């Protein structure tokens, strides 16, 4: 049987500690701006994005151009902790809602 440990706290996850919670993350560049740019020909937007990517590359930035998926094993307490603050934001700052 494969041994799993929590990717956050490092503790072993066994039948005694509770279920292994699998967290899957998926991130990708959102195409929102392409949709909103009705005034521009599609090729212009593509070229614009390509230009931005080239500039970022020149600046030495690692630009995510593809979908990235990651999976983590979490113990139950860490899973609960993660869900309460998924982005690890400071608890001092109150969540802001745009009102939309
Ligand atoms: Zn843990």
What does the model show?
The protein is an alpha+beta fold and 100 residues long. The chain folds into two domains: 1-28 and 68-84; 30-65. 31% of the residues lie in helices and 18% in strands. It contains three helices and four strands, in the order E-E-E-H-H-E-H. The protein has helices spanning 32-36, 42-58, 76-84, and strands at residues 4-5, 12-13, 21-27, 68-74. Strands 1-2 form a two-stranded antiparallel ribbon. Strands 3-4 form a two-stranded antiparallel sheet. It is elongated and about 60 Å long. The model has no long low-confidence stretch (mean pLDDT 81). Residues 6, 8-9, 11, 74-75, 77-78 line the site of zinc ion.
Give a short synopsis of this structure.
With 100 residues, the chain is α+β, with helices and mostly antiparallel strands. It has helices spanning 32-36, 42-58, 76-84, and strands at residues 4-5, 12-13, 21-27, 68-74. It folds into two domains: 1-28 and 68-84; 30-65.
Write a concise keyword list for the protein shown above:
100 residues, alpha+beta, 2 domains, two-stranded antiparallel ribbon, 3 helices, 31% helix, binds zinc ion
Shape: elongated
Oligomer: single chain
- N-to-C SSE string, H for helix and E for strand: EEEHHEH
Number of strands: 4
- For the record, give the distance between the C-alpha atoms at the N and C termini, rounded to a whole number: 49 Å
> What is the structural class?
alpha+beta
What share of the residues does DSSP label as strand, in percent? 15-25%
Tell me the major beta sheet. 2 strands, antiparallel
Computed over alpha carbons, the radius of gyration is 20 Å
Main-sheet strand order equals 1-2
Helix percentage range: 25-40%
Tally the structural domains.
Answer: 2
Unreliable parts: none
């Amino acid at each position: 049987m494969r041994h799993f440990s929590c990717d956050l706290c490092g503790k072993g996850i066994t039948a005694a500690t509770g279920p292994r919670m699998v967290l899957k993350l998926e991130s990708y560049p959102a195409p929102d701006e392409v949709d909103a740019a009705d005034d521009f020909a599609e090729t212009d937007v593509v070229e614009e994005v390509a230009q931005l990517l080239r500039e970022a590359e020149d600046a030495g930035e690692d630009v995510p151009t593809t979908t990235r998926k990651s999976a983590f094993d979490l113990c139950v307490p860490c899973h609960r902790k993660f869900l309460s603050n998924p982005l690890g934001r400071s608890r001092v700052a109150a969540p802001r809602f745009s009102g939309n």
